[in-house]
Specification:
Enzyme class: transferase
CATH topology of the largest domain: Rossmann fold
CATH superfamily of the largest domain: Response regulator
Number of domains: 4
Distance between the termini: 93 Å
CATH architecture of the largest domain: 3-Layer(aba) Sandwich
EC number: 2.7.13.3
Shape: flat
Structural class: alpha/beta
Keywords: DNA-binding, Membrane, Phosphoprotein, Transcription, Transcription regulation, Transmembrane, Transmembrane helix
Helix content: 55-70%
Organism: Prevotella illustrans
Strand order of the largest sheet: 2-1-3-4-5-11
Largest sheet: 6 strands, parallel
Number of strands: 19
Catalytic activity: ATP + protein L-histidine = ADP + protein N-phospho-L-histidine
Length: 740
């Protein structure tokens, strides 16, 4: 047994210990409550109690305190934390939807509880039928009033799904009773104080008798009751609500004591929610839309329900105490088991260490003998390889010097050849050092050998021919800008010589300077090294791809790092291509051509997509089909989508300008112009005009509006100028299209 086997033995023993511990799979569940109240405290406690039936379940609770912004932040924190499932009670229907969709896009299951979301992007919904609750309470009140009377409704938080659905069900039920007048619908926010304020304001302006007040929860209806009683102590108004909580001062006690005539149980059933969550996490079949059953509470059954609730609470407390004891016993057991296992491991390691120490001394003698033999072989290998490299080096430096001395080339060709000669001489120096290596005592522990293929004699003419190829004149002022980022001046110069006939070249010596130039000039392409001072190429690529102004710019990483893991890291940073040094200029040009063709294809796709219009709820577009390699990035798709939405939203505004467009999208006028031009081939002004004309064409074909109406609808201030632009765009007058 060798000493190097010790780590393997430790890993084996650790794996053995872990395997003995059984299946310890754990689940983290985030719970985002829209607010804090007695009803939600009861639900949270039921979640905890329900989780006792499953091993490895950890619950993380968060309350938004009726704040949309806070709940969005909490949900996003759960997503970033990587929880396995999120349970959400949305504060409002639509405002929380983006955060729920974000979690869903990150493949985190989402259970929407109690309140609904404005999107269908969730795993399951569980909650009571709020519309049926409103309908039942409406029918109950109408029956109690024998079909005649005046009723006031106090609604919950504006925009929340329970408030909307309970109101709809309540109003639907009252419509069946013409003798029932809905005297007022007051707006609260689920708190008693909000309902009391709303009722006081209502009573100041309303002088008629109120027969019944329906609050969408018990807290609000009690607040409304306080306002009514303060206004008229002799009032005969009756009250009913929703929730019927069995807690002290809750709805059940209020019904039993006659403060409320009735309340409708709004079930919590946290145990059902945790059961649904575990079905989702363990990939079992489940019901995506589950409605919880409920019932009406009156004075006839309130006392019985209170007794039952007290018994449930007592059993729950007993269960919590039992759970705490079990956890304590399990903790002690696990501690003792680990102590025993570690003692066994230490004993085994001690025996193994004694045996390995004994073998170590004998192994050292053999290794020293083998080291001396390998040392001689390595020295001979270095000497032979050095001589093999020296021959092709001579064939490289001599032809280059000959070409330079002949003096028939252009200035930039001389610069290129001088750079090549200088680097060849540096390589010659390194080879000479290797030849002298035999004079130095070799340290086998501190050196490595990099094996490289020799340059064959038949490749020398090809290299020379490529080096002296004449470059075309400098490009004109309309050439597209290309950014080269490399800390090696010779590499930048060589790339400039290769590419100057096609692009306007700008250069940077490090990633930070390159990022500044990219944001300032918005080039069509960036070629960057990886290993650079200040900011490396990978970080530059990530910054470029993460900035809205530059995310569309293709990036080619040109580097000497050629390991598969390094190539993978480059592509993960957002690179569009990865080319290793030494490189072929022909391969580089071919890759640039491919990228530019793909970008042109994207321009046509985006130009049509950005100017598409919506007709009868369906977006119409003539966008070209793009292949998989040309697929736009998510950030560019989002940018074009936002740009399209802004144009469609402001199209009717004749004073809508590029400055306003840039302000809304978060870019300066110059940045907006260059990015839109790069993505669509159109300037922002052209894009806006084209979108307006496409919308006008759709309105001409699908509506009976006249030309003036359409011109003003799409943002033109002059029908005659609109007709001229329409003719220029489609080759036909608008009036001719209407006749056709």
């Amino acid at each position: 047994m060798k000493a190097s086997h010790l780590p393997s033995l430790i890993i084996f023993l650790a794996a053995l210990l872990l395997s003995c511990s059984g299946d310890n799979r754990t689940f983290e569940i985030g719970v985002s409550q829209c607010s804090e109240d007695i009803w939600r405290d009861k639900f949270n406690q039921e979640l905890r109690t329900g989780s006792y039936g499953y091993d490895g379940v950890t619950l993380h609770f968060a309350s938004a305190d009726d704040s949309d912004t806070r709940q969005i932040e909490q949900i996003n924190r759960f997503v970033n934390r990587g929880v396995d499932l999120i349970i959400v009670a949305p504060n409002q229907t639509n405002t929380i939807t983006p955060a729920i969709e974000n979690a869903y896009r990150h493949h985190i299951p989402v259970i929407v509880y109690d309140r609904k979301s404005g999107s269908n992007h969730y795993s399951a919904y569980i909650g009571a039928d709020n519309r049926e609750i409103g309908r039942q309470m409406g029918n109950y009140i109408a029956t109690r009033l024998q079909g005649r009377g005046r009723v006031v409704e106090v609604m919950g938080l504006r925009g929340s799904s329970p408030a909307i659905e309970r109101h709809e069900g309540f109003a639907e039920a009252l419509r069946a009773y013409p003798g029932i007048e809905l005297a007022g619908t007051l707006q609260g926010d689920w708190t008693g104080a909000s309902a009391e304020r709303a009722m006081r304001r209502f009573l100041k302006r309303e002088k008629g008798k109120i027969d019944f007040v329906f609050g969408q929860n018990d807290r609000m209806v009690m607040g409304a009751r306080d306002a009514v009683m303060a206004h008229d102590l002799q009032s005969t108004t009756r009250f009913c609500g929703v929730d019927a909580l069995p807690t002290h001062g809750g709805g059940l006690e209020q019904v039993r004591d006659g403060l409320l005539e009735a309340s409708y149980i709004y079930p919590t059933h946290g145990d059902k929610v945790i059961e649904l969550a575990m079905k989702i996490l363990t990939h079992q079949p489940y019901e995506r839309e589950k409605k919880l059953k409920s019932a009406l509470v009156t004075r006839e059954n309130a006392n019985v329900l209170l007794l039952q609730a007290e018994e449930v609470v007592r059993q729950s407390d007993d269960l919590n105490r039992l759970h705490d004891k079990i956890n304590d016993y399990l903790s002690r057991y696990n501690t003792q088991r680990w102590i025993l296992m570690m003692a066994v491991v230490i004993l085994i390691l001690l025996v193994a260490a004694i045996f390995m120490t004994y073998r170590y001394y004998y192994e050292r003698i053999r290794i020293n003998e083998e080291r001396e033999r390998m040392q001689d072989q390595q020295l001979n290998f270095f000497t032979n390889v050095s001589h093999e490299i020296r021959t092709p080096l001579t064939l490289i430096t001599d032809p280059i010097n000959h070409i330079v001395n002949r003096g028939h080339l252009k200035d930039h060709d001389f610069d290129t050849l001088r750079s090549t000669a200088r680097n060849a001489n540096e390589l010659m120096t390194l080879v000479s050092d290797i030849l002298d290596f035999k004079k130095i005592e070799f340290d086998t522990a501190g050196n490595r050998i990099d094996r490289q293929e020799n340059i064959s004699d038949e490749n020398v003419p090809e290299i020379t021919e490529t080096a002296i190829r004449e470059a075309d004149p400098s490009p004109d002022d309309n050439s597209e800008t290309l950014l080269i980022v490399d800390d090696n001046a010779d590499i930048r110069h060589y790339l400039r010589v290769v590419l100057h006939n096609r692009f306007h070249i700008i250069e940077a010596a490090n990633g930070q300077e390159g990022l500044r130039l990219a944001r300032e000039h918005i080039p069509v392409l960036i070629i960057s090294d990886i290993m650079m001072p200040v900011m490396n190429g990978l970080e530059l690529c990530q910054q470029v791809k993460g900035d809205t102004a530059t995310s569309h710019i293709p990036v080619i990483l040109l580097t000497a790092k050629s390991e598969d893991s390094q190539v993978a890291e480059g592509y993960k940073s957002g690179a569009d291509s990865y080319i290793t040094k030494p490189f072929s200029s022909a391969v580089l040009m071919a890759r640039i051509d491919n990228i530019m063709q793909s970008r042109e294809q994207l321009r046509r796709h985006y130009a049509n997509l950005s100017t598409s219009v919506v007709a009868d709820g369906v977006e119409t577009s003539t966008a070209v089909r793009i292949d998989d390699q040309s697929q736009p990035s998510v950030r560019d798709q989002e940018f074009i989508g936002r740009l399209h939405d802004i144009i469609q939203r402001h199209m009717i505004e004749s004073e809508f300008s590029v400055e306003v467009m840039g302000s809304e999208i978060g870019l300066s006028r110059v940045q907006l112009y260059r990015k839109v031009k790069a993505l669509t081939g159109l300037s922002p002004v052209e894009l806006l005009r084209k979108s307006r004309l496409n919308k006008a064409d759709q309105l001409l074909r699908s509506t009976g509006m006249n030309i003036s109406e359409i011109a003003y609808t799409v943002g033109f201030t002059s029908p005659s100028y609109f007709s001229k632009c329409f003719k220029d765009e489609f080759g036909i007058q608008p009036v001719e299209l209407m006749r056709g």
